[in-house]
UniProtKB/TrEMBL annotation, chain A:
The keyword Transmembrane applies. The chain crosses the membrane at residues 74-101, 113-131, 151-173, 185-207, 213-231. Coiled coil: none annotated. This is Metal-dependent phosphohydrolase. The keyword Isomerase does not apply. Residues 1-26 form the signal peptide. SUPFAM superfamilies: HD-domain/PDEase-like. It comes from Streptomyces alfalfae. Residues 258-380 form the HD domain. Residues 236-431 form the HD-GYP domain. It holds the Pfam family HD_5. PANTHER family: CYCLIC DI-GMP PHOSPHODIESTERASE TM_0186-RELATED, LIPOPROTEIN.
């Protein structure tokens, strides 16, 4: 609790009290306790991670690595409660599940209580609205399509309350500026809540029909499967990203002077791409382009990469094959898209003197021009065995000097602007100690000394 | 990783080949069950259409609504012919129509033939755009769909229309249970049919195929069945409005599965390109990792491994040589055969360390690490990778390619090394797989 700011504590307390006061009137005689209990158990059961894991047949390490669930994958049960029960009882449905759920981060109990209060308040409001619009009678009839009106309003109210409360916690606890705290939250939560609302409505209709609760439970099966597929998706995606990192680390195995270089180039590429106003998908692709730009070094003999002494022209030619090797390797990875071109062309220069093809100006794909600048920038600002790291300002000056001949001035300007705004936080490198046993043990990770005396030949000539 | 073990396993008895596997078996993969299913389905469709044309359509509006739903579901079809359930909404709609007994409280009177006729007509219309793009459903899929819907309709409609069901069960929760029971039965029959068809096509053992089909039922299969049941019941209560309302959640399910499948495909591509890193680095010959992966998977299937184990096996086989990346100088031509066994194990351990950093199942890393151990100390997947790898290296390295000498001689040498390095069962399974591969182009290649 100590880490929670004062304002947030007050805020959570208020919401909890409000939630409790909503639920307390359920203690009257009109509450259909069996239905409340059944729904609450359902919600708690679904919310409980272990159960889902067991259903999916996963155990041990795989279960521990499981990805976060999407927001509100279990709303159908809550919304069915909204459509079926009196407001106070509907508020109760979420409470046991939310209190028993797994919290990912500390302080766990505060998070659980907060979640319970938030859901109770949202359910209560939405059930209140539904009752006011004559929903319960329309559900029991059932009176289609009229019932869609109150149901839609209830779902909207549910999403609204969740959004408002979420924005509040962002503003108080995470200190997100109030102006931005609410941005995008509502639009993001509305679509899933709407679909779950339809499922909840179907549950409520079947629950009150002669077929009763067993038929209503069938509705949960497709939702559960969908939720399972969602979790699997995240699981696979995480595994995929780890594999990409492994590709990068395989490069580090061979060429140890560049630890963390790839990740940082990825980050700088993202800065440039965002500054140029590219859409999110392209930014993501450019991140991969930056991370993987040197992957072709896997194809260069390790002895050459680690050579201690000047390179012969022959050896230099072999090293300069790495963009083509890299392109050959990632050719089969569909989602990389234009990142593949960036990998092939990141050593081209605007004046046409680069390699492998000697493209000039606009012939060089945009993605490659981004990565070239990011690559050079990181090469200059990080410590290498042949040169000390230079300050960001000096590096930017150097880039600016080479713009037009070596780099695309547009990209250099974008990087300068982006760094003005966000600063440069190179952060952690990918250098995790003791990961991979190494053939040579303690050999110096080094680089041919004739590599750039940077101002002369331009940085990052490798 | 290496063929050393095989080479040192026994005296050279080249040419003797006493235990060479029987000549490529003559019986081509039997298409009989699949052809039979298709014929029955076609007959069923024609009979149903004729019957419906003759008797006319009862309750046209309901038929039209379900026809439109099935058609839309089929239009939203995605994935290849090997996707498990490419059009879940279409399937759920068809099942719901087969199990429909009431519409907003009024009895319906359509019989099983009309159900089949509506499904056929809707599917045909919706298939037109797909066929135009050259991606129409495969005959096997169409036959399966018709047979399973026909099965459900024939189980339910006569029973319902004769009034027997209402008399015995009534219209309460038990009615819902009957519907679920019919669906479970249908799903089981469908799984058996699918496994039989796959068995006929590929000649992989039937048991594991059936188990894989049954496992798949727990995924999207159960969602389809549950949606079918819910739609049938909801239409009975609320009328045709229930159809659009409950289509949306199933579409969401389909969407999640699609994303899941997409990320799986991407993941596989990435692993494959990690595997190609060794080829580009000159550690292994072109295509080696892919050949070993294909052979390992085929042997795994032949030995009755299940789908998750096959994935582990495939990933491990793709990455089995990755340890060579940490060598300062590549082993020339990837011929690790010349290396002493301790060196092989060391490279295997290096490989395992790289694999552990990827996000793959830790089981994959274990397989990669243990690939050079004697077989009695290995898990089954590592045995398979070891044998497939040794075979590929030997078959490539000697004898005129494709002629009798290379592959058969390689098998013979593997058999001689079954004392310590290669498990006899795995080697025999490899021989079966290779024989099958030569006898017909179908089968293992498409695993």
């Amino acid at each position: 609790m100590r880490s929670v700011p004062m304002w947030a504590r007050a805020y959570i307390l208020c919401v909890t009290l409000a939630g409790a006061s909503c639920a307390v009137s359920a203690l009257g005689p009109h509450t259909p306790w069996p239905a409340v209990a059944l729904l609450a158990v359902l919600y708690a059961g679904c919310e409980h991670e272990a159960l889902l894991d067991r259903l999916a047949g996963r155990t041990g390490a795989a279960a521990r690595r499981r990805a976060p669930r999407g927001p509100g994958t279990l709303f159908p049960v809550l919304l069915a409660g909204v459509f079926l029960l009196p407001p106070a009882a509907a508020a109760l449905v979420a409470v046991p599940g939310a209190l028993l759920a797994r919290a990912d981060r500390r302080p766990r109990w505060v998070r659980r209580v907060w979640r319970a209060a938030q859901l109770a308040l949202a359910s209560w409001t939405s059930a209140r609205l539904y009752a006011a619009l004559g929903g319960p009678a329309a559900t029991a009839a059932p009176d289609f399509p009229y019932v869609l009106g109150p149901a839609g309003a209830a779902v909207l109210a549910f999403a609204c309350v969740l959004t408002v409360l979420d924005g509040g916690i962002l503003a108080t606890a995470e200190r997100v500026p109030a102006r931005t705290a609410w941005r995008g939250l509502f639009a993001r939560s509305l679509a899933p809540v709407a679909v779950h609302g339809l499922a909840g409505l179907m549950m409520a209709v079947l629950w009150t029909s002669p077929y009763g609760p067993p038929a209503a439970l069938l509705v949960l099966l497709p939702m559960g499967v969908s939720c399972w597929a969602f979790a699997q998706y995240h699981h696979e995606r995480a595994a995929h990203q780890a594999t990409i990192r492994a590709l990068v680390q395989a490069v580090d195995l061979k060429d140890r002077y560049t630890r963390g270089h790839s990740e940082r180039v990825g980050r700088a590429s993202v800065l440039i791409a965002e500054e140029l106003g590219m859409d999110d998908d392209r930014v993501e692709v450019l991140r991969f382009a930056g991370i993987l730009h040197d992957v072709g070094k896997l194809g260069v003999p390790t002895r050459l990469l680690r050579k201690d002494g000047p390179l012969t022209p022959e050896e230099r030619r072999v090293i300069e094959l790495h963009p083509e090797y890299g392109h050959e390797m990632v050719r089969g990875i569909g989602f990389l898209g234009e990142a593949r071109e960036a990998i092939l062309h990141h050593h081209e220069r605007i004046d046409g003197t680069g390699y492998p093809y000697g493209l000039a100006g606009r012939q060089i794909p945009e993605s490659a021009r981004v990565v070239a600048v990011a690559d050079a920038f990181d090469a200059m600002t990080s410590t290498r065995s042949y040169s000390r790291a230079r300050p960001v300002a000096v590096a930017l000056e150097e880039l600016d000097r080479c713009a037009g001949a070596h780099f695309d001035p547009v990209m250099v300007a974008a990087l300068t602007r982006a760094l003005d705004r966000h600063g440069w936080h190179p952060g952690v490198t990918s250098d995790l100690p003791g990961r991979v046993p190494d053939q040579l043990g303690d050999q110096r990770g080094n680089v041919p000394p004739e590599l750039p005396a940077p101002s002369a030949s331009g940085p990052a000539a490798r | 990783m290496t063929a050393l073990a095989a080479a040192s396993g026994g005296p050279e008895r080249a040419g003797a080949a006493p235990a060479a596997e029987p000549p490529a078996s003559e019986d081509r993969p039997g298409r009989l069950p699949a052809a039979l299913a298709q014929a029955v389905a076609a007959l069923l469709a024609l009979t149903a259409l004729a019957w419906t044309l003759w008797h006319g359509i009862t309750e046209g509006r309901t038929a039209l609504a379900f026809g439109v739903l099935i058609g839309l579901g089929e239009l939203a079809r995605w994935g290849s012919a090997r996707t498990r359930e490419p059009a879940p909404l279409g399937a759920a709609g068809a099942l719901a129509y087969a199990l429909l007994g009431e519409n907003a409280g009024h009895h319906t009177h359509h019989g099983a033939p009309q159900v089949i006729a509506v499904v056929v007509a809707a599917s045909l219309v919706a298939a037109v755009p797909h066929v135009a793009r050259g991606k129409g459903p495969s005959p096997d899929q169409v036959a399966r769909r018709l047979l399973s819907v026909g099965f459900a309709a024939v189980c339910f409609q006569p029973l319902y229309n004769s009034g027997l069901l209402a008399e015995r069960v009534g219209h309460g929760p038990y009615f819902a249970l009957v519907i679920v029971a019919v669906l479970v039965l249908t799903a089981l029959c469908d799984a058996v049919l699918a496994a039989a068809m796959a068995h006929a096509r590929t000649r992989w053992p039937f048991g594991p195929l059936l188990r894989d089909e049954l496992r798949a039922l727990l995924g999207i299969g159960s969602a389809v069945c549950a949606t079918g049941a819910v739609m049938a019941l909801a239409v009975a209560v609320a009328g045709l409005w229930a159809l659009p309302v409950f289509s949306l959640p199933l579409l969401l399910t389909q969407l999640s599965f699609r994303r899941y499948a997409a990320v799986r495909a991407t993941y596989r591509q990435t692993i494959a390109s990690l595997a190609r890193a060794t080829e580009i680095a000159g550690c292994t010959p072109q295509g080696h990792a892919h050949r070993v992966a294909r052979l390992s998977k085929a042997v795994g299937r032949d030995l009755g491994l299940f789908e998750p184990d096959l994935t582990v096996l495939e990933h491990a086989a793709l990455m089995h040589d990755i340890g060579q990346l940490s060598l300062v100088d590549p082993v020339p031509e990837g011929a690790t055969a010349g290396l002493p066994e301790a060196e092989q194990r060391r490279i295997a351990l290096l490989g395992g360390a790289v694999v552990r950093q990827t996000g793959v199942d830790p089981a994959v890393a274990v397989v990669v690490e243990r690939q050079a151990d004697p077989y009695r100390e290995q898990p089954l997947a590592a045995r398979i990778v070891r044998t497939a790898n040794a075979y590929d290296e030997m078959a490539r390295g000697e004898g005129p390619s494709g002629a009798l000498g290379g592959p058969l001689h390689a098998l013979e040498r593997l058999r001689l090394a079954t004392g310590r390095d290669h498990q006899p069962e795995v080697v025999e399974s490899l021989a079966r797989v290779l024989a099958r591969e030569r006898s017909g182009p179908r089968g293992v290649g498409r695993g």
